[in-house]
Amino acid sequence: MRLAVLSAFFGLSIACFTEPSADRVWRCSVDQPLCPEGQTCINDWCTKDGTATPDFATADAAEVSDMFRSPCTDGKPLGTQGVWACRGKFSPTTVKASGLCLSGYKLCTDGFKLTAAECSASTPGFFYADAPAAGSGYATAQCGSQKVFSSMFYGCGLVTGSTKTAGMPCRGLTTIGFCGALICDLSDGRLDAQQSNDALSGVLCCPP
Predict the structure, then answer these.
(1) Both 94 and 178 in a single domain?
(2) Are residues 47 and 114 in the same domain?
(3) Alpha-carbon gap, residue 191 to 107, rounded angstroms
(4) pLDDT the model gives residue 45
(5) Same domain, 34 and 16
């Protein structure tokens, strides 16, 4: 009965599990098969090349829970210190930016747990931190606040035409994304007050 319930819940039957689930939590599709380097889109999940995918029909409930315990419904780890790039749309009236962070994780406010290479353009999309920028443009951008906010947020990644290297780093972050890609409330510098309709981008989530 337990096997039948698990099989019905996941609706798929795939090969034996041979690697940690963290390598397979980046969602993809036939229409949008974007995966990190070294991974391929298989059964709607980015899977590390040369590895198998898990057989949920032979896993018990505790194993299934462990495999899917992550701070994102669609995301991947950045670096080795617990930071995740969590992908998805957000809005102050539906799912807030902080709502993309699960399992006790919170929006990152800095980049101290990431190296420059880890916070790079190697991941498709741009992932915002709760780190507003102030300045007249990217060349003068510096740390802002909820009240001092100039249509920019620091984060990781790269979207052509929507991100730039900031004039001044902010708490370990060097790249900014502009409002425009975000629909911004310029009176409120919290990321939770902003809206993103880009399903390939998202937020940076840090461990509790």
Answers:
(1) yes
(2) no
(3) 9
(4) 77
(5) yes
**What residues make up the domain containing 195?**
76-206
DSSP of 70-122, one letter per residue? SS-SSEEEETTTTEEEEE--B-TTSS-GGGG--TT-EE-S--TTS-TTTTSTT
Percent residues over pLDDT 90 in the chain: 54
Neighbours of 84 (CB within 10 A): 28
Domain boundary among 69, 103, 118: 69
Question: CA 48, CA 26: separation in Å to the nearest integer?
Answer: 10
Does position 64 have pLDDT exceeding 60, yes or no? no
End-to-end CA distance of the chain: 37
Question: Which residue intervals of 11-87 are DSSP H helices?
Answer: 61-67
State pLDDT tens for residues 115-170. 988 998 666 789 999 999 999 999 999 999 989 999 999 999 988 878 899 999 99
Q: Are residues 54 and 138 in the same domain?
A: no
Count structural domains, the chain: 2
Q: Amino acid letter at 162? A: S
Residues 88 and 187 in one domain: yes
Residue 193 DSSP symbol: G
Chain position carrying tokens 């790039």:
85
pLDDT for the residue numbered 122: 60
